[in-house]
Every structure is written in structure tokens, then in C-alpha cells.
Write a structure and sequence with these properties.
The chain is of the alpha+beta class and 257 residues long. Helix content is 28%, strand content 27%. The chain is globular. 46% of the residues are buried.
């Protein structure tokens, strides 16, 4: 069952989304040569505690991994697609592509968002990868209107990525979000004709998160049981926003109005 949120609930989700936005803005500015991914973890944890929020990721149990995620932040570098785990030993280097993904629970409602940044020197391929991934998200958001179907969102991502010479991840998807981090429906970045294709209705809230790969679409999970990487070793990019379906069009809850 897909939840539909009231205007007051959407305001609470917006507050959660804005906190995530602030955290990601701060962390993006910290990404620099010589900084460790654990440094970002500590800053994200501090900001959540100062805001009176709980981390959405830390302690999250994955049946596939068979364990709980131990950090408040995912930091995925270069060929890492999602769920990269912070480490003091993982230090940023020139040319790195860095995806930051985090979430909070604030007053019972969840926020979740992701952004990718690149360190100089940025290659033309990396610049294009980040641009196209952002465009995929923007095009998906434009489709998040009452009366459309879920496949309109998925198709917008897939068409643009493929047209630009990139591929989309099939093993990891977006999701509904509200009083739980992951709610129905799943939001794939490709048109999945085997699954339901619900019509979008006012009050639905979706975490839309294109994960776009420079190379082939195949991925694998490392021995830590969390970190997903591209099989061919090519770079990946990841952007995510929470989007509410309203009668006035899409409302992006994870950024300022």
C-alpha cells in the first residue's frame, strides 16, 4: 500500500529533507584532497545530534547484507555506486568522484538525499557524467505529477542516461519515504514491465535517486556486504531528492523552496 501524506505531514518531511540538504551542503564543501571519508562521517553525525535528529542509516538492517549498517553516512568514491562505508584509511585524492548519501529521522519523519561532487582535475567524461545524472533527476522530478504513472519517472531517467551514452543500475532503486525510510513503491531507474506501475496521486512522496554509470550496467557487492561497485571499474554518479506529488506539481522536499 502506498501512503499518501497530509499537508502537515509534508511540512514535517520538508523539515527532515532540509536538514539532510544542509548536511550534504556542508559535507560537499569539506571534500578535498587529504580529507578522509571518516572526517565527513563525524561531521554528519555532529550535525544530526545538534539538530536533535536520529540517523536514518546507522543501525539499518539489510536482509541482503545480513547485518546493520554501522555509519550515518554513505561515501562512495569513483567506481563505488552506493553504500560506501566511511574509513580513516579512505582519503580523497585528486580527480576522485565522490557520492554522498545520508538520511535522518526528525520528529518521526524521514529525510533522504544524495549528491555527487568531483575533485580537480575533472575529466570531460566525469563532467558529463555528473551533468547527465543531475539532468536525469531533474527530468524524473518533472514527471512526478498527479495522473502520471511510476514508469514515467523511471523512463525519464533511463531514456536520458542511455541517449547520452551511459547506463543505469538495476539492482538498486529509489523508494517511497515517510514515517519509514523505505516505503512502497520501489522507484527503479529503468522501466520495469514486470512490476506494478501505479498512478501517481496527491500526497505520495518518492525518493528518486538516479545512479548512473559511465560504463556497463553490471554491479557487484564487495566483501563488506554493503559497498556496491561497477564490475568494469568505471565511475558512477548518484543524485537523490525527496519529491511530493501535489496538485500544484512536484514539490522537492529535500531542498529549499
Amino acid at each position: 500500500m502506498i501512503a499518501r501524506r497530509s499537508p502537515s505531514e509534508l511540512e514535517k518531511l520538508h523539515r527532515s529533507g532540509l536538514l539532510v540538504h544542509q548536511i550534504l551542503q556542508r559535507l560537499s564543501g569539506m571534500v578535498a584532497v587529504g580529507v578522509s571519508t571518516l572526517d565527513l562521517e563525524h561531521e554528519a553525525d555532529r550535525m544530526m545530534r545538534d539538530a536533535g535528529a536520529k540517523p536514518a542509516f546507522k543501525g539499518y538492517y539489510s536482509q541482503a547484507a545480513g547485518t546493520k549498517f554501522p555509519y550515518v553516512l554513505c561515501v562512495s568514491v569513483n567506481e563505488e555506486i552506493v553504500h560506501g562505508m566511511p574509513s580513516q584509511k579512505k582519503v580523497f585524492r585528486a580527480g576522485d568522484v565522490v557520492s554522498l548519501d545520508t538520511g535522518v529521522q526528525l520528529n518521526g519523519y524521514f529525510g533522504d538525499s544524495a549528491v555527487t561532487v568531483a575533485l580537480d582535475p575533472v575529466t570531460p567524461e566525469t563532467e558529463k557524467l555528473l551533468r547527465v545524472t543531475r539532468e536525469c533527476l531533474d527530468r524524473a522530478i518533472q514527471q512526478t505529477v498527479a495522473g502520471n504513472r511510476l514508469a514515467d519517472i523511471s523512463g525519464a531517467v533511463e531514456r536520458h542516461a542511455v541517449t547520452e551514452g551511459f547506463s543505469v543500475v538495476r539492482e538498486f532503486v529509489g523508494h517511497g519515504i515517510g514515517t519509514s525510510l523505505h516505503e512502497e513503491p520501489q522507484v527503479p531507474n529503468y522501466v520495469d514491465r514486470k512490476n506494478d506501475n501505479p498512478r501517481l496521486k496527491e500526497g505520495m512522496v518518492l525518493a528518486i535517486e538516479p545512479m548512473i554509470l559511465a560504463g556497463r550496467p553490471e554491479s557487484k557487492v564487495l566483501k563488506d556486504k554493503w559497498t556496491a561497485v561497477t564490475k568494469d571499474g568505471r565511475n558512477a554518479a548518484h543524485f537523490e531528492h525527496m519529491v511530493a506529488v501535489t496538485n500544484n506539481g512536484p514539490w522537492v522536499l529535500s531542498r529549499p523552496a
